[in-house]
Amino acid sequence: MFKDFTNKEIEEVMQQSQAAFRIYQRMPLSKRAGFMRAIATELEKCGDHLIHTAMKETNLPEARLRGERARTILQLNQYADACEKAEWMEISIDTAVPDKNPPKPDLRKMMVPLGPVVVFGSSNFPFAYSTAGGDTASALAAGCSVIVKAHPAHAETSHIVADAILNAAAYQNMPEGIFQHVYGQSFEVGKALVMHPYTKAVGFTGSYTGGKQLFDWANQRKEPIPVFAEMGSVNPVYLLPEKLNASATEIAAMYAASVTLGVGQFCTNPGLIIGIESDALKSFLHDLGKAIQKIPPAAMLHAGIVKAYKENKGNALLQDGVHLVAESETDVKANEGLPTIATVDAKTFLNNPVLHKEVFGPYSLVIRCANANEMLLVAQQMEGQLTSTLMATASDIKGHESLVEAVKNTCGRLVMNGVPTGVEVCLSMHHGGPFPATTDARFTSVGADAIKRFARPITYQNWSNELLPDELKNENPLQILRRVNGEWTKNRI
Amino acid sequence: MFKDFTNKEIEEVMQQSQAAFRIYQRMPLSKRAGFMRAIATELEKCGDHLIHTAMKETNLPEARLRGERARTILQLNQYADACEKAEWMEISIDTAVPDKNPPKPDLRKMMVPLGPVVVFGSSNFPFAYSTAGGDTASALAAGCSVIVKAHPAHAETSHIVADAILNAAAYQNMPEGIFQHVYGQSFEVGKALVMHPYTKAVGFTGSYTGGKQLFDWANQRKEPIPVFAEMGSVNPVYLLPEKLNASATEIAAMYAASVTLGVGQFCTNPGLIIGIESDALKSFLHDLGKAIQKIPPAAMLHAGIVKAYKENKGNALLQDGVHLVAESETDVKANEGLPTIATVDAKTFLNNPVLHKEVFGPYSLVIRCANANEMLLVAQQMEGQLTSTLMATASDIKGHESLVEAVKNTCGRLVMNGVPTGVEVCLSMHHGGPFPATTDARFTSVGADAIKRFARPITYQNWSNELLPDELKNENPLQILRRVNGEWTKNRI
């Protein structure tokens, strides 16, 4: 068992993190990248011990955890490459025009780190969105020191990963305190970290309640700080009529798998499926139900998640007008989540906010709309989402312009004829979305642009070349792509 | 006189703005840019009438106002060009890799507008940061509809500019309601605009009190929204010893002019000048005082600003340890601001938060540090700033690494051997800074990157080419620069 940090210990952590930040921010990009790559190597070196510990703490299967560790390593290496490539720095240089009236000064803009970043990892990604996950990698790439509060549901796993990071820090001669690992079951620990004056930003992946609380604390500070909280989503799927007519059976099979993937424990799990009353929708519902019956339940992450799943699903099923379509026919154990599909008509859905809430687990609610107008209304009143999906033919899209627009305006990723689960790590991925999916729709937590959450621009005006940071020097010693007088180039000035 | 809008009128305004947004967001970039350029043309057509009205309402001299209108026109045209060039969209395309395991989908990321934006203009820039100013131009470029609350101190000027925008909207066949002009002396009007569910972002330039209030309201909404408030700054100037020794007289002359430029009514006005006790500092203080005595007072923007200047300056001068160095020797009229220099020792400054506050007007406080360590302490404890300035030789910079770092960590623009007043409008300009200079250090309100405040990324996954927005189509019909599989190119895919 790990003991909660005391206020005194938290104060020490923050002092050390601030001291480390002051050194780390001045280190060259290659050093930051080297540190990140060393963490990746150390994670690999943790071997089976790490995987087995995570299996014990999270109930996630071995293959999934091996895959997730590989993804975490990929993220660290990918963001390290991006860190050195420095495109996230959005460098822009305007050289002086002395004979302009008034004279135009020499102006050179780049990104600098915000300061110490507090990271709250998620329970559903013990590697990729936890201790050495995407937020930590983004903050280190930006030049920030990092304080991770270990997720209590996998504290031992977090401990092993933290040790790996500290080993990497030692090998790479990082300043002491660059990475700090804090334990706390009590919300007071989280609050103390967010409220500390040295903390300059927060990264969070988890529930709406948790994320919104951190956001509110951060805004109540004397000096408010940015919080990027990814708070989950119900990821609506819109079944457009022509497509549904043509492919009801295939869509049902695809979604039975997506709804139950990883026992439904993904923030991109499709929790709402919206169609228009028709024979095709009936047939889809029937096929989806049949498929769900055949999918066995599986162990969820921890007792708290199972309990919440049962309560939230139970509550949803109790609402007026909600009907159970099907459940898995396999016996369910106490620690397992039972795959379940329910249905409701759109009018009832529109008037009952309970049904808009995420039910975290292998559950989806099929909304039956009387007609296309009602589907439009559902889309227009939808809360902000990480993803929305359109199952549609080209003529469906062209015939439902307002619907497509409404769906676009409420999500961060718009999937066509696929499933929202599966989040590719690359520059073109946006993993974010309008509130309440996240606390700031302008940033992503997946892909190297996630670095930008923890950096801010600064302009150097009229500095002599020798005193400028390497990123901005005339001779471009880092050989990075920069905008010089409006044009992208690697050339020297 | 203009009457405050009623809640009913505000509701109508927001309904129309939302309806207009739904149409405007789908218009091509060239249409947005055309609208912005038409506003620029209409502003020019307002001719002398606009200038004379602004002179009457703001007391600003004719040449300054003509210059400011030209700058406003430049901004509209420059951001229109940037809008079409579309680099602010940060387009990234990763094409599918079907034989990857799992298969990598086709992912294409671009920026889309947030929605209706409420703009609160400033009193000190009746054109460039008001009705058709930088925030309005940024929001229109991003694809947002705009609601401007007219500044009560120049409501007639705002009315003329609003008419110019509405004329441009009519000529360019913009949707009705794309631009809305609202009057309100009462803070209830501002609150109603910020709290309205259709409002998706806020731009503000003005006082800390005003900006912080909008920020707090926005965060108390059921759906919090981003507020970019530029709340001013004291813009500290650090006089490093070697430079001061060599150039005390020149620096004094430069700063007498900068402190009093535009009657000190710039958010980049140097309100603190920090030096180390020495003969050179004494000589600097003496010369600065002499120069200030010779600069005549001039009319300030409005009665409220004069009153606040007198009160805030009077209050600062009453603080223990603060000494008046010099005032202008010309008689001052009731509507004028009297150029004034005061001084205090660093210990007193560090212990008195009153002295850290902006005194908006032709006033600056010279802080005398006992030694370099005390100067470092002042820099480390400095609040966030739009700008900081170093008056320094190369060896000063090299010999004061910690100071330079502390100064960098607390500002958005770092000026070397110049004055902070004068904000060039170009891509490399950053006009922003850590709280309390702004509410989000990650964004600028000057330069085309200001557009990014009002846009968010979205990723299209697996869309067929013909259904994608033009920005993302394989053939690149807009001929814009895009990152395709990590490389910037204008080539088709």
Question: Could you give a short description of this structure?
Answer:
The structure is a homodimer of 493-residue chains. Chain A has 493 residues and is of the alpha/beta class.
Q: What does this molecule look like?
A:
Two copies of one chain form a homodimer. Chain A starts with 6 loop residues before the first helix and ends with a strand. Chain A is built from 15 helices and 19 strands. In chain A, strand 6, helix 8 (about 210-220) and strand 7 form a beta-alpha-beta unit. Chain A is of the alpha/beta class and about 500 residues long. Helix content of chain A is about 40%, strand content about 20%. Chain A has two domains: about 5-230 and about 440-485, 3-Layer(aba) Sandwich (Aldehyde Dehydrogenase, Chain A, domain 1), CATH 3.40.605; about 235-415, 3-Layer(aba) Sandwich (Aldehyde Dehydrogenase, Chain A, domain 2), CATH 3.40.309. In chain A, the strands form four sheets. A seven-stranded mixed sheet of chain A has the order 11-13-14-9-8-15-16, with helices on both faces. In chain A, strands 17-2-1-18-19 form a five-stranded mixed sheet, with no helix packed on it. The model of chain A has no long low-confidence stretch (mean pLDDT about 95). The longest helix of chain A has 24 residues, at about 60-85. At the A-B interface, strand 1, strand 2, helix 8, helix 14 and strand 16 of A face strand 1, strand 2, helix 8, helix 14 and strand 16 of B.
